[in-house]
Amino acid sequence: MLALGDSYTVGEGLPAEQSWPAQLSRALEAEDIAVGELRVIARTGWTSEALLSALQEADPQGTYDLVTVMVGVNDQFNSLSIDAYRANLRALIERAVILAGGDAARVIVLSIPDWSASPAGAQFAAQRVPVEVARFNQVCQEEAQRAGTRYVDVTPLSLQMSEREDYSAPDGLHPSGEQYRARVDLILPEARAALGGLDE
What we know:
Residues 3-182 form the SGNH hydrolase-type esterase domain. InterPro entries: Ester_Hydrolysis_Enzymes, SGNH_hydro, SGNH_hydro_sf. It holds the Pfam family Lipase_GDSL_2. This protein has a single domain, classed as SGNH hydrolase (Rossmann fold), CATH 3.40.50.1110. 48% of the residues lie in helices and 10% in strands. The chain is built from nine helices and five strands. Helix 3 runs parallel beside helix 5 (82-99). The longest helix is centred in the last third of the chain and has 20 residues, at 128-147. It is globular and about 45 Å long. The two termini are 20 Å apart. The mean pLDDT is 94.
């Protein structure tokens, strides 16, 4: 399994085992769906361009059973071009499909969380943030559908951070392990289908 992303894939502020890729890997193993070793190419602060550059530099070889892509929040945060985001995301998804053995159905693209709903984000996020996140997510979904990959909308979970204390990491900005567990519940049916496991 290969997970590509930024802080929301790394699990910023949490032990690595609480990140959603790690929890997803364990959930699949619990259902006797082996995905082998988990590799994560992600770092806090990465934009789509930075992730694309890192992926090209890492140049992973071989075929992965499952590849996930989740990036774009730092593009929005830094007011970067949404057209550039589209181009970078398209290139990332194309590379992800190649790494999945050319099978787009084994690639899962995830939406961008709305960080303005977090306790810390609510203190300094402008009112425009939810609108901009929605625009980026529209591009994200369009590119996922264009490539024929799977798409999972996890943004509604991030909106619950304003109401659920257990959904925030200690920094008050990133998700907690509990929110990542809920995210895995959303991803798991798509992952099962991608791996030819249990029916959805």
